[in-house]
Amino acid sequence: MDEKIKREEMSDIDAMNAMEEIDRISTGEGADELNGVWSSAGPRGISDGVMNSMEQIPPDEFEQGQPAEPMRERRGAGGGIWRAVGRIGVPVLMAVALAATAVWGDGQRALAEGYKQSSENMYRRAFTELCDDMSNMQTALGKLRVAGSGGQYMLLLDDIWRLSGSCVSLMSQIPSSHIDTAELNSFVVRIGDYARALSKKALNDEERTAEDEEQLTALYDSCARISRELNDRLSIGDVPTAAVTNEGYYESAYADEVKQSDDIDKFPTLIYDGPFSESSEKREAKGLGTDEVDRETARATAEKLTGTDRMEDAGETEGTIASWDFTATDEQGRETGISIAKRGGKIVWFMGSAAGGENQMPDEATRERMKQAALEWLGKAGFDNMRATYAQYYSGAGVINFAATKDDIILYNDLVKVWVDIETNEVIGADARNYLFSHTEREMPTPSVSPEEAEAKVSVNLEIESRELALIPITVETERLCYEFKGRCGEDEYIVYIDAQTGAEQQIFVIINTENGQLTA
Asked: DSSP H helical segments within 236-273, as ranges?
């Protein structure tokens, strides 16, 4: 019996000692020891020690019934142990839960950012496409005013109707706070409906009335204004995002930026090099010649055309137009690259950089001087009987387009682009790929339609200013001889092509005059 009491006292003492040790560690007095326990035994190291102390109490004592007070003491000792364990375990569990919540929150935040970015990208794409479609609809409405043939008239009306539907679809994807969607939607729908009504009249052989002409002019003017406003916003980066919810959007800071958009640097490119330019998709290069040239012969040509004798090898290019490639660097560190065709030895392209950076059209005397410099260079490069057609001026250079001629007929497929430095009047670049793909000896047909008969096919709305013959591409491999009529309708300039054999209206282009030169569309 004494032995049993002794064991009981020892068990109580062991349990109390364990509790005091845990209290001392958990209150900071034994932090280093606690770290050691966690690092060596893990979180179960402490609880296992406590349980070992408790297990020293013989289980039969709980069955035989003991005095109430010793049991309360034991319960008190056990409760203190579990409180100590709670003081350690609960913070650990909370830390784990907090970390898990943080990880989950980061995932949700990343997901939300992904959705936001996707929405913004969709809005930007829709707004950019809306600007393009409104510009195209303005162009089609302008062409419609000078369309003389029923075929062209119907095609243009169909384009307008299609673009109207496209604009309505795009507006449905743009935040309503960014544009006055209801008003613009109504206007665009009216244009489409009117184009459809004119199509039905044309199919019934009904003539356009003076009222129709007035309505088309009014629609064109309104479409031009809206297109200009949208493109002004696009040019300064004022595009819709998911964050755009301000009802007073038109009174925002962007309103002033639109007015000051002329001060924003723009680098226009020759988006369309005259009415007919891209013939490089032809399957065969017709204008290369037959003689093969070696690298040294090509190097000599490259040095003559670029005015430098320091041309270094830059490999070779294979493909439809195989070429020898060279580079050179001048004293100012400006690099020039050039390619010479292996067959025929003509230049394929070359490009340097301008001395200055002027981005506006020079005066007439300077433009004429640049044109003459380009013509002299073309003659040296083996391109004869060339005529300047359209030009753009930016980044310190003028890009002048030259088309070949034969018997005073412009061959629009045989095109060479020449870059001339505005400041130095030197040729600093050229692209002859269209010419090399298209140029060949042609038998010109004799016109079956007289100039007067062709002019009668042109809309009376076009005030004709010039007339000449031109060979224009119809498909990648076919060409047609046409009369080219340039003129005005109101403030806008147009080019109309009438087939010299059939009298059919083949093409209509709009001349776009900018501060940097002329474009066509």
From this structure: 254-259
